[in-house]
Amino acid sequence: MHKDVEEILFSLDQIVARCDEIGKQISKDYEGKTPVIIGLLKGCVPFMAELIKHIDCDIQIDFFDVSSYDGVNQTGNIRILKDIETDVHGRDIIICEDIVDTGLTIKRVMELLGCRGATSVEVVTLFDKKEGRTVSNIEPKYIGFDVPKKFVVGFGLDYNEVYRNLPYVGVLKRTVYEK
Ligand code: IMP
User: Is residue 74 part of a domain?
Assistant: First the structure.
């Protein structure tokens, strides 16, 4: 275990098994359709790479790079650093997130895709930090695991761009960000 991690919450095996379950559900829900799975960089990368291996129907993928965080504190702002290339008009979209916390990022991205004419917009997230929610009516359709209101890292999740490569998800020691 990494020295900055206090406790491991989910192992790689648990995450892969859950990706298999969610992938099967998505395959069933989108049978005969070709949804576009839009990952929110960079945290989505390990999760999205694993998840799509478990989806049987045809899909397309694309990526947004949006940012609303500065360290551990939500700033309330969202910046589009990289836009998608797909014309989403008339398409079924599944936004792929690493973790939903306040719900602000997802809300803004859903609004944007709606404005661009997407037929449907759903959310798949590896983690849901429900206690952190400040935005109402933001309920991801597909959720890997619920997590407590603690700062977690690993499997794509970072603190100041570090720890994304950990092959598990754990709670970051407070001493790391309360220096
Ligand atoms: P929201 O807009 O508050 O829902 O924030 C979602 C984004 O915040 C995620 O995509 C992450 O980048 C980041 N985030 C929220 N909680 C955590 C955490 O515990 N660890 C790492 N990143 C987090």
Answer: yes
pTM, two decimals, is: 0.93
In a domain, 158, yes or no: no
To the query of whether residue 101 is one of the catalytic residues in this protein, the response is yes
Q: What is the pLDDT along the chain (179 residues), one digit of tens a residue?
A: 999 999 999 999 999 999 999 999 999 999 999 999 999 999 999 999 999 999 999 999 999 998 765 555 555 566 789 999 999 999 999 999 999 999 989 998 999 999 999 999 999 999 999 999 998 888 999 999 999 999 999 999 999 999 999 999 999 999 999 87
Question: How many other C-beta atoms lie within 10 A of the C-beta of residue 87?
Answer: 11
172 and 159 Cβ atoms separated by less than 8 Å: yes
Atom in ligand 1 nearest the alpha carbon of residue 151? 19
* Total number of domains constituting the chain: 1
Q: How far does the centroid of ligand 1 lie from the alpha carbon of residue 147, in Å?
A: 12
CATH of residue 65:
3.40.50.2020
Domain coverage including residue 134? 12-147
Which pair of tokens denotes residue 84? 């998608």
Task: Assess whether the C-beta atom of 69 lies below 6 angstroms from ligand 1.
Answer: yes
